């Protein structure tokens, strides 16, 4: 099965167009369709010295592997010309157009997956558009009730209970209902995306030392622990709440298939230390398959040729693997 995969280059002033050009230069075992302004991709490829032939994407054709140096483009026009390293809020609508097109194509079965380069949340918000991230935006677009952000670096998998949320708002967002919903989505995702028959999930506590028996906070006793007990009664293999400072030791990780962290900066620093530049962001709980990079727009590297495409390559490889597993 040759999957057709939509690529979105993200912020046009960032490294996304560079990474898409590099991926196209490599070729792929899938058919890649860039949802982008072709002039942007062509200009960035020339800036990087990459020989690239851009071809208009035509719907209804059988998918074929992308040959090195050739890229299909579903044209979406920039609002204003883009300059590497200098974002313009006028292009926020363009960025969202690319996401909308890729997502609706996935919902319709036109694309097997969408692979996204980084967007600049601040620039989109500066345009007057409320935007907290790909995960939340795609959930709203596809009607997903409970999206879950899962970062993957080799065999290390870290999911987040809360995502792009101010730290002072995290405790109030940790509820038994959310824990149960996220853990179920994570469990099902580990089964369907990775072929793990009975996933083992390690769930972290919120407070230092998982609350120290209530002396350092009681969320573990009042909310997290009871939710995990209900999940265990329902047959899920969940352990915790565990102290975050010891849950990422090699011995502890050997006992689980994924770690569920309570908030963004509890789990992701460890994941990015282990695999930054080669890790993948996989969104679970959507009716479509979406993978992404583990980094930001790196405006200072755009157009310089110094941006590493390793994470986007890994995101594409994981998307192809999961798409084939789902079709098998």
The helix/strand series, from N terminus to C terminus, equals: EHEHEEHEHHEEHHEHEHHEHEEH
Distance, first to last CA:
9 Å
Which bin fits the share of residues in helices?
25-40%
Secondary structure: number of strands: 12
The name of the CATH topology of the largest domain is: Isopropylmalate Dehydrogenase
Count of discrete alpha- or pi-helical segments spanning 4 or more residues? 12
Class of the largest domain in CATH?
A: Alpha Beta
Strand line-up in the sheet with most strands? 3-4-2-1-5-12-11-6-7-10-8-9
Give me the CATH architecture of the largest domain, please. 3-Layer(aba) Sandwich
Structure description:
- The protein has 328 residues and is α/β, with parallel strands linked by helices.
- The chain folds into two domains: 1-144 and 286-328, Isopropylmalate Dehydrogenase (3-Layer(aba) Sandwich); 147-285, Isopropylmalate Dehydrogenase, CATH 3.40.718.10.
- 39% of the residues lie in helices and 18% in strands.
- The protein is built from twelve helices and twelve strands.
- It has helices at residues 16-26, 38-48, 92-107, 121-126, 134-142, 170-173, 176-194, 219-233, 244-247, 250-253, 264-275, 310-327; strands spanning 4-8, 31-36, 53-56, 70-75, 113-116, 148-153, 156-160, 200-204, 237-242, 258-261, 280-284, 290-292.
- Strands 3-4-2-1-5-12-11-6-7-10-8-9 form a twelve-stranded mixed sheet, with helices on both faces.
- The mean pLDDT is 96.
Which terms summarize this structure?
single chain, 328 residues, alpha/beta, Isopropylmalate Dehydrogenase, 2 domains, twelve-stranded mixed β-sheet, 39% helix
């Amino acid at each position: 099965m040759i999957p057709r995969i939509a690529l979105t280059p993200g912020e046009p002033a960032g490294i996304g167009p560079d990474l898409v050009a590099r991926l196209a230069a490599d070729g792929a075992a899938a058919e890649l369709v860039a949802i982008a302004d072709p002039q942007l991709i062509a200009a960035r490829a020339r800036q990087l010295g990459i020989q690239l032939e851009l071809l208009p994407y035509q719907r209804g054709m059988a998918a074929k592997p992308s040959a090195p140096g050739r890229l299909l483009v579903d044209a979406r026009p920039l609002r204003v010309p883009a300059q590497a390293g200098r974002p313009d809020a006028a292009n926020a609508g363009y960025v969202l157009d690319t996401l909308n097109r890729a997502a609706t194509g996935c919902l319709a079965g036109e694309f097997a997956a969408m692979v996204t380069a980084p967007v600049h949340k601040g620039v989109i918000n500066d345009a007057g558009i409320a935007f907290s991230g790909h995960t939340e935006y795609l959930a709203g677009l596809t009607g997903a009730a409970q999206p879950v952000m899962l970062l993957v670096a080799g065999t290390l998998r870290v999911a987040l209970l809360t995502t792009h949320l101010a730290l002072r708002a995290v405790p109030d967002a940790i509820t038994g209902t959310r824990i149960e919903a996220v853990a179920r989505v994570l469990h099902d995702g580990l089964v369907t995306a990775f072929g793990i028959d009975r996933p083992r999930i390690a769930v972290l506590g919120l407070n230092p030392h998982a609350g120290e028996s209530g002396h350092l906070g009681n969320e573990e006793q009042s909310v997290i622990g009871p939710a995990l007990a209900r999940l265990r009664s329902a047959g899920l293999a969940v352990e915790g709440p565990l102290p975050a400072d010891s849950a990422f030791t090699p011995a502890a990780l050997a006992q689980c298939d994924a770690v569920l962290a309570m908030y963004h900066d509890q789990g992701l620093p460890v994941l990015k230390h282990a695999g930054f530049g080669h890790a993948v962001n996989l969104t679970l709980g959507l009716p479509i398959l979406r993978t992404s990079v583990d980094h930001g727009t790196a405006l200072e590297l755009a157009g310089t040729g110094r941006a590493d495409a390793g994470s986007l390559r890994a995101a594409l490889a994981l998307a192809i693997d999961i798409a084939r597993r789902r079709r098998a």
